[in-house]
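Our preliminary data section would be incomplete without showing what the modeling component actually yields. Below, a chain of 349 amino acids is followed by its predicted structure, encoded as tokens that our downstream tools consume directly.
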Amino acid sequence: MKKIVIILVALTVFAACKNQEETQGADVSVPVKVIDVVRKPIFNTLEINGTVSPTGTIDLSTLAEGLYRLKNNPLTGKPYRMGDKVRKGDVLVELDNPEYLLSIRIEARKLDLENARQEYEKQQSLFDKGGVTQRELKNSELSYLNAKYDYDNALLQMEKLSVIAPFNGVVVDLPYLTPQVKVASGTKVAQIMDYSTLMMNAEFPEKFISTVSVGQEAFVTNYNLKDDTLKAVITELSPAINEASRTFKGVMKVSNPELIMRPGMFVKAEIVVEKRDSAIVIDRDLVQDKRRGKVVFVVERNTATEKRINTGIETDDEVEITSGLEPGEKLVVEGYEMLSNRTKVKVQK
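Predicted structure:
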């Protein structure tokens, strides 16, 4: 009986060894996922923070006294209010002052101008025919010019009764004044800002003095508007280094045509210090550091091939491949941790 048990144990051990040899001899394929190597842009950026300000700001005040009357906004059909867009030449406020209008004598000056013009044209015609002297013609021209100056001056005086927007912008302040209340000359009635383009004053670290230059692009975001990124460009750079902060000053213009970003916002700017419009770019995680250098894996005929690469621009997530990969190759993006050169693989969908 003891002999039979020993024989059975020996047979079991032999069968197990045989199965192990067969398993080891089987061709095992590592499952992987791949993507096609393609070209695309890549940027290396310098991040700075700052506050944006409008390109134009003006307090609109009255230039004469009169009874206050807030005008309707032609874009809304309602009286102007804070937040309204205005166009250059729009009248926001008018002052009623009949006594002031009488002192201007606008209609009389207009009539004087017309009479002086007709007389000058008549004298010019007579002079061409020899009917008047040159002195008489010059006196007629002088009368015409004086009448024109008087009329133009009257128009300027009339404009003082209107508060006019000097540029396109947005009403950001509109003090409330009772309609038809008498206001004095110099009374502030509105504030307008133009922030379709914003200015950003920046402080750049000294080590970037040879990297940052006028004309470089930047991308600007606000922490409360994370999904809205605006384009900017560096317009000015100071050549002087601040001894205390070891920084140098710069100015950026931020394009804000939709008025998404507001003046006074604290923003983040990413300045493009390096740029490739068409480069082979892959995820940084795919690059493995080995003794021979940096490598990635590509698949050729169900076999993983180790490719030694050189890199260029690097960001937080991606890296430029300057040599070692070509467009169209099948780059392993999942399962590469278990690979070595010439490993058999099975590409998963």
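The longest strand covers residues 39-61. The domain at 98-160 is CATH 1.10.287 (Helix Hairpins). Preliminary results of this kind motivate Aim 1 of the renewal.
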